[in-house]
Amino acid sequence: MGQDSSKEMKVAKLCNGTVIDHIPSDKLFKVISLLGLEHFSNQVTFGYNLESKKISKKAIIKISDRFLQPEEVNKVALIAPKAKIVIIRDYEVAEKIQLELPDEICGDVKCLNPKCITNNEPMKTRFIAINKAKGLFMCHYCERAVSTEEMLLKE
Amino acid sequence: MVSTKSLVSISQYDKEKILSILDRAAQFEQNPNQKILEGKVVATLFFEPSTRTRLSFETAANRLGARVIGFCDASTSSTTKGETLKDTITIVSNYADVIVMRHFIEGAARYASEISKVPIINAGDGANQHPTQTLLDLYSIKKTQGRLDNLKVAMVGDLKYGRTVHSLINAMSHFNPTFKFISPKVLEIPSSYKLFCDEKGIKYEETSELNEEAIADADILYMTRVQKERFTDLFEYEKVKNVYVLTNKLLEGTKDNLKILHPLPRVGEIADEVDENPKAYYFQQAQNGLYARQAVICDLLGV
Prior knowledge:
- The complex is a heterodimer.
- Chain A has helices at residues 2-8, 28-34, 70-73, and strands at residues 17-24, 44-51, 57-64, 84-89, 92-97, 104-106, 109-110, 126-131, 136-139, 145-147, 152-153.
- Chain A is mostly beta strands.
- Chain A folds into 2 domains: 2-97, Alpha-Beta Plaits (2-Layer Sandwich); 104-153, Aspartate carbamoyltransferase regulatory subunit, C-terminal domain (SH3 type barrels, Roll), CATH 2.30.30.
- In chain A, the strands form 3 sheets. Chain A has a 5-stranded antiparallel sheet with strand order 2-3-1-4-5, with no helix packed on it. In chain A, strands 6-8-9-10 form a 4-stranded antiparallel sheet, with no helix packed on it. A two-stranded antiparallel sheet of chain A has the order 7-11.
- The model of chain A has no long low-confidence stretch (mean pLDDT 87).
- Chain B is an alpha/beta fold.
- Chain B folds into 2 domains: 32-129, Aspartate/ornithine carbamoyltransferase (Rossmann fold); 132-286, Rossmann fold, CATH 3.40.50.1370.
- Helices cover 38% and strands 15% of the residues of chain B.
- Chain B has 10 helices and 9 strands.
- In chain B, helix 7 (191-200) links the parallel strand 6 (178-182) and strand 7 (203-207).
- In chain B, helix 1 (15-30) crosses helix 5 (131-145) and helix 5 (131-145) crosses helix 6.
């Protein structure tokens, strides 16, 4: 953590809250949208295009005074499976959340099939994991398979 | 979400359920006119026209004494006024005891089954599912072969887009089949179905040649139409549309028990001369749909 934490400090050191680190830079705004951070009233800071040894350019998000639950952040695994989530309490790492693809995704992802009912009715989409190791999901309605790489987030 | 029994996809039926539906269908074949649904209302909502399937369902309902309501073309329904499927299904489920629906939109039947207070029977949702077609295919196979187990099934034509082929692979997987997939390269069986066969330990072979050798050991020859509407490049369609034409000569070396099935309509893949061949079974196959649909309607109504 030594070197990494000094880089995190370039953004802002967090007293209490959640840190989402090692987000590929080009995925940052997708993560913000997926977690609905634009609607948070807490202080949220983020860094963009930071140097990283693991990935070419990384981004980081720090959310003050909010402790996200695994089921809230698991959606991040869809677009940034290597992201690291840590819960900070009193400036110390209190917990590391291991990201895992969710069993089901409701409402966040658009079905790629234009003939799917979810693209033709005002309704929520629903995807069921069929092979988590391969990142494969199936639309609950039109039954087309989609990989996490192909997934499009709903606007 | 409303919880009720519906038939949306063949994959929701296990082996026992399939066999019980086929047994019931056999009883209806013995006696198709039974007034056991008197007082019941069957709605047939055909957002996409399909004369053959609609008449089959409506005949099934009528022969059981039910009354039929519905429409055969979405242009005559409120859909053209912009009504959502949710509203249409909610209203109709106030009137009918069971809803048979065909829709050009994929997943429409699944969604309807989550809204409806009464059972939904999927009579085709775009390129997705058409489970009663699969049941009549199975019924035809069982009736002509005397069993479903350990059969060699050759599937010919559009194996990429053909939903009947995909559903039949799924349903036959309970009965230890051996498949031969015969298709042009551009229409070959999707890898997900090969993976499915591998996982289930089902043997299969692939070839792009429809010749005497390819079908010599088949018990069932399942022909399909190459669907023009699936091609974005019509040049590609022209190249493959007449690749496979089944003739009496091709059938000369085949097994005596072989039967030829086709979900119909056909356009040219079976020569007219084959209609008179005792191995041709596609017209009787369509008739079997009546009994399979009678069995499904009764099953969902708990009769």
